[in-house]
Amino acid sequence: MDIDNNEMNPMQRSTELSKKALEYLKKYNVAPDPKSYDVWYQYASGENVEVNKAIGDFIEKGGIPDQVFTDRIHANILSYEVIAKTVDSVTGLLTDQISGVAGAMSGTDEELSVFSDLLVGASSDIKHGTFDDMVADKLNSAVDKVNMRVKELEANLEVSHGEIKKLQHYLETVRQEANVDPLTGLATRKRYDQSLSQAVRNSIEANEDMCIVFLEIDHYDAFRTKWGQTTAEQILRFVATAIRENIKGRDVSARYSGSCFALILPKTSIDGSRTLSDHIRSTVERKRIVKKTTGEFLGRVTLSVGIAKYAHGESIGFFCNRCDRSLLAARANGRNCTITELEAEDVLSGITSSVQDSDLSSDNGEAGAA
What we know:
single chain, alpha+beta, 12 helices, 7 strands
């Protein structure tokens, strides 16, 4: 919970989070199995709002997390079985509704079959001159039954149609929730990865530019430590809104990790991606962050941004690494800036050279003093 995203590369951060998760498992005497590890890794990262709230509330009330509590958190929040059960339940209800409609249709077929037989008989009676009032009464009675059955069917169909629409909407909501980050309303990392794979395929097939962008909130963990989790979450939502309001319909925006966001920009060049990113960055920076309860000015939020363009034929992993390196260069360049892959190596090598020159000057100074 006290790991600084801004000061580490992804490998370092993952290692630190793993250590922290294992510390929690040892502290609360929880078995280090995959499910338990997943719960406490998520808690250590601070990325899963539901997990953090459930554990935080439990500890705040004096509870001591144990194996049973950990298993319950995984089952109720992280397990895909929760979503699967909901989908199965809705699918079952849909099946029942469709079966009901099919049954009603079957009953109507029987009524129509009887009516058809009566018509055939009446036609024969008319042909042979034996049609009388009794036959006419039978026909009228059959017509009345068919009309009544049709009205019942129409009513049943209308009700079933409404129920099916509600169930379909609910099922779509469940699917959307599985792909949407509950705090920011942007896509989840899982959804982002799926979208990126499709975007890469589209870029190759159409031979068009496609860029990805990583945007990271500068010194987010320090801000959270100073002003609290609730205010920090408001910052995340604010940045997510700024991103959502500035991208186009074909673009994809996601919460990539704790304080890092990601964009997929199809049919967009490096220059176009920079223009969009700088607009988002300036929109965020202009906002004065004020505490609602006291009116206290908390400061301004800035973003570091890295950009990379897909090179046809490269792996998605290498593509993301290049963008991550651009973000690393933006951090190294003092943050609150946008660095593309075209500039990243010059920035990083320039910083390395400056460090080496500084070390050399220090060594020379020491030698002179000696």
